[in-house]
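Saturday, quiet lab. Running sequence design on the structure tokens for the scaffold JK sent over.
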């Protein structure tokens, strides 16, 4: 039977989907480096053979299409470009990919999903079509979208994606009554937590956690870039010796978020140490207004935030309904009286609790990782 007449059997994926899957795998290699840009992969195929490939490697560097098409000669009329995200048509930190595609004379382009960036969002495809390129959109669309779910959320809502992460004992404690917490989870889980840091643009904790644990909030157990460290500190009580106040040594930036109640003088002292101090309004209890904070972070290109505690901060985010995902590591450990992961949420009946419709439960080192999405 001649190949082109063969009827597709159930479960068999089309050639386009097969190449798109390869492009998706390539895209994932940028995972810990590209944000707040999306991960993007691209392939150039001629007569069923991949002749070139590329992916977006690092924020600010060349786009996937540039890597894939750059080394090729012009006149690619018989070639198909597979790209997981719609090619851009604007000048960002790099030139428009649509121009490159047209210059190389690519005959056909297969796109996974449209770019939610309002500067692109369908215009990239239109420009190519108007120039006579055959464009197919929506191959493995759901997978291509899911790959960049944090980027889509940020672009579509103008707010960063928020993940809460904590490690707890079986009785729901994140520390003992005296505040000791190192370590509740095993090294493999802590390594995993560092990977989560590397794929978020910011890691956020309250000043209480800084005072008690003096965390560095950097990526150390895995390779990846440091997220911005965001410290909630409504009155600027962060101790002078805190490690987060030495951004040069740690690498990356520290932003302290405070309220107008904080003393100006302290703010200047902190800024002199290379830390950025941001002031946002306070809520009725005098704490940083989280909604306003998230809007401010989104405007500063923070597309996702990993909230690591403490209890008060985790509780405030949940109470404000600002959470998209929770990573909860549960260790085979009982601590008894101590600090609870989450405090008062005014839940009277079980059915008033926050139930997560989508979740996975995995083993992680000596713990169980409950990974929930809203
Ligand atoms: C593509 N291919 O590989 C990526 C795209 O500042 P720039 O120039 O890096 O542009 C960033 C925007 O470009 C980003 O917000 C998203 O809309 C798009 N990302 N587009 O054609 C790529 N990474
Ligand atoms: Zn581009």
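Result came back. Writing it out in full:
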């Amino acid at each position: 039977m001649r190949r082109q007449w063969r009827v597709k059997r159930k479960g068999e994926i089309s050639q386009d989907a097969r190449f798109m899957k390869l492009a998706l795998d390539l895209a994932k290699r940028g995972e810990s480096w590209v944000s707040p840009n999306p991960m993007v992969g691209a392939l150039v195929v001629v007569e069923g053979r991949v002749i070139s490939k590329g992916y977006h490697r690092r924020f600010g560097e060349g786009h996937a299409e540039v890597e894939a098409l750059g080394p090729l000669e012009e006149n690619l009329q018989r070639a198909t470009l597979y790209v997981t995200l719609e090619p851009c048509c604007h000048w960002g930190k790099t030139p428009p990919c649509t121009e490159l595609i047209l210059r190389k004379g690519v005959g056909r382009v297969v796109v996974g999903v449209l770019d939610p960036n309002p500067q692109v969002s369908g215009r990239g495809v239109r420009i190519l079509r108007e120039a006579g390129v055959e464009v197919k959109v929506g191959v493995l669309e759901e997978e291509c979208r899911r790959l960049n779910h944090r980027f889509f959320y940020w672009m579509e809502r103008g707010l960063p994606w928020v993940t809460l992460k904590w490690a707890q004992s079986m009785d729901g404690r994140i520390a003992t009554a005296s505040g000791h917490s190192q370590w509740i989870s095993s090294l493999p889980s802590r390594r995993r937590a560092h990977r989560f840091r590397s794929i978020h643009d910011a890691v956020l904790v309250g000043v209480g956690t800084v005072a008690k644990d003096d965390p560095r909030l950097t990526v150390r157990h895995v390779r990846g870039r440091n997220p911005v460290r965001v410290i909630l500190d409504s009155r600027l009580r962060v101790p002078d010796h805190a490690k987060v106040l030495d951004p040069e040594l740690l690498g990356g930036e520290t932003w302290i978020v405070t309220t107008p109640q904080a003393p100006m003088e302290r703010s200047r002292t902190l800024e002199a140490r290379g830390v950025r101090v941001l002031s946002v309004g306070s809520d009725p209890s005098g704490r940083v207004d989280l909604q306003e904070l998230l809007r401010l972070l989104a405007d500063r290109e923070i597309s996702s935030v990993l909230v690591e505690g403490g209890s008060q901060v985790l509780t405030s985010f949940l109470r404000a309904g600002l959470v998209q995902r929770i990573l909860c590591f549960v260790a085979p450990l009982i601590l008894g009286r101590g600090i609870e992961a989450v405090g008062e949420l005014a839940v009277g009946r079980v059915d008033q609790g926050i139930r997560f419709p989508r979740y996975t439960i995995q083993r992680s080192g000596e713990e169980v990782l409950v990974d929930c999405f809203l």
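Notes for JK: The mean pLDDT is 96. The pocket of AOF (ligand 1) is lined by residues 37-38, 40, 56, 63-65, 85, 87-88, 92-94, 97, 115, 117, 120 (CB under 6 Å). Ask whether to fix the surface positions before the next round.
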